Amino acid sequence: MEMNDTAAAAWEKLRGTRWSPPRAASDDPARRRTYVFALEQAEQMFRAAATVGVATRPLQVFYGLSQAGRAIAAAAAVLVGDGWELSGHGIRCDPGSLRGPLPHIQLQAAKPGGKTSFVRLSELLGSPLWADSQQVTLSDLWDCLPDNRLYPLRDPSGSRTTSLYVDYLSMYAEPHPLISVPVAYFPPLGGELPGQQQGTGRLHEPVPRRPALGLVSQGQRRTRRRPRLHPARRRLG
Questions:
Q1: Which of 90, 127, 160, 173 is deepest in the core (most CB within 10 A)?
Q2: 231 pLDDT higher than 60
Q3: Has residue 2 got a pLDDT over 90?
Q4: For residues 3-19, b (16+ Cβ closer than 10 Å) or e, as one string?
Q5: Domain-terminating residue out of 56, 81, 106
Q6: Sorting pLDDT into bands at 50, 70 and 90, what band is 47?
Q7: How many domains does the chain have?
Q8: Is residue 147, in this structure, part of any structural domain at all?
Q9: Positive or negative: CA dihedral 153, 103, 204, 136
Q10: 162 and 235 fall within a common domain
Q11: Does the CA dihedral 187-188-189-194 come out positive or negative?
Q12: Do 173 and 230 belong together in one domain?
């Protein structure tokens, strides 16, 4: 986790809302208190997480997210009555799977419509939930985070579905009827590929190494390196 200039600017704007919260949080004293203190605690947790080692960082990130979620719920005008009050995390693990390998731990979401943090915030933000009767593995959820693309929980020779990278900085600024953007980190596509299980379409190859991104000095001018892309380019209509 990093606290760069962009993150610092975002937190500066959020701090300004603590003395003047959104209307839904300012009209109710209890919601106002929750919004102000939860937002402050979230910022402090994230700042602390950026300065500690990996052994304790996940705890601070988790509780930072938890408090940020409470602030979002307190500020949501669509949540009336006590609907903004959150209770519980909303994701639980199958106790029996805890004795097995870490990637195979089974996780289950709470039922839709509840007041748990994960469920209520997912519904509030329009993020789809998986069925409460369905279990997913920890490694599948891990691969949903873009930064974990090069850090698999399980053997990297196994088939993984990871996030793609859209180089939005290379999009055309002028109006155009067809949007074309470079997309990176595709798995191998088409034909008979090494490690592919016949009839399944699933691959057993590690994804390509992450291309270097960053700023490169060229005299007085600074330009952004473009990522090396997979030969396939996808057009978005």
A1: 160
A2: no
A3: no
A4: eeeeeeeebeeeeebbe
A5: 81
A6: very high
A7: 3
A8: no
A9: negative
A10: yes
A11: negative
A12: yes
